[in-house]
């Protein structure tokens, strides 16, 4: 009988202790929640997250309405604290300007994306997702300035992976391709993608930049090919350049030059006229175009048109050769 009473007494004590422990545990959860808030305010973000998780765990173990409430409140704070942590690390990078600090900030934002998804916080998830591609692109621009092109390309790939509708990285990949490859098509492929994405997302400035970069590179390479007497390939590149800028006076001038080298004088005249249509500069800027036109007319035996064109070409560096052709070759002052 004494044994039974002793067992009964121990059971009552255990039950009472359990109730006291439950009450104390809930109070602990509340205290932990408040401590976590203070830690977050003090920018002790990792400690705050750990403390919120501990409070949530206690709430879950309680299995009571109060426990459920403290669990929910604690878990709601975790994504927000992680986003604040990422923002604070980004500010640290802005102060230091060090790529290593930028990398740390990127990782923190990527973790914010995952934590936001885990705790179903759409606002935090979307905010962090917005930062990640931009920070990778910022890293890429820093690396590009340091001429670290392969590393730049990797950062750009990460930016595109994070947001395939982000036009700027495609454009910059075109610039990187110019540095890493002699094949113009490697750069053009990325410029074309930049244009397509920019058009889809209403980023007109990026589209114009990509078109301008493609045009400039094709014009530059076309001019170089003319210098090396590779006229057919030069014409192919220059024609392609007109697809990026159909009103480029410089491209049509170079086409006129290349066709003159091939003795295709009608095509030279046609492109020279188009170049003059789009040339916005003054007489000196137009002189080189008139010179190509004059030469084409001269080769066709059209003295009157040749003399007229050479007259308009007699400015700047083309003044002397134009006057030489008029005086000694065409004898423009005579009727012969």
Total helical elements: 15
Counting DSSP E segments of at least 2 residues, the number of strands comes to 0
Beta percentage is under 5%
The low-pLDDT segments are: 1-22
Q: What is the averaged pLDDT score?
A: 93
Q: How far apart lie the N and C ends?
A: 147 Å
Helix percent band: over 70%
Specify the overall morphology. rod-shaped
User: What structural class do the secondary elements suggest?
Assistant: mainly alpha
Give a quick account of the main beta sheet: strands, pairing sense, barrel closure. Answer: none
| H and E order | HHHHHHHHHHHHHHH
Radius of gyration: 36 Å
Short summary:
By secondary structure, the chain is mainly α. The protein has a domain at 1-163.
List keywords for this structure.
mainly alpha, 0% strand, disordered N terminus, 84% helix, 336 residues, rod-shaped
Describe the structure.
- The chain has helices spanning 2-41, 45-62, 65-96, 99-118, 122-145, 149-162, 167-180, 184-200, 204-227, 231-241, 249-261, 265-278, 283-300, 303-313, 319-329.
- It is mostly helical.
- It has a domain at 1-163.
- The longest helix has 40 residues, at 2-41.
- The radius of gyration is 36 Å and the shape is rod-shaped.
- Residues 1-22 have low confidence and may be disordered.
Topology:
Elements: H1 2-41, H2 45-62, H3 65-96, H4 99-118, H5 122-145, H6 149-162, H7 167-180, H8 184-200, H9 204-227, H10 231-241, H11 249-261, H12 265-278, H13 283-300, H14 303-313, H15 319-329
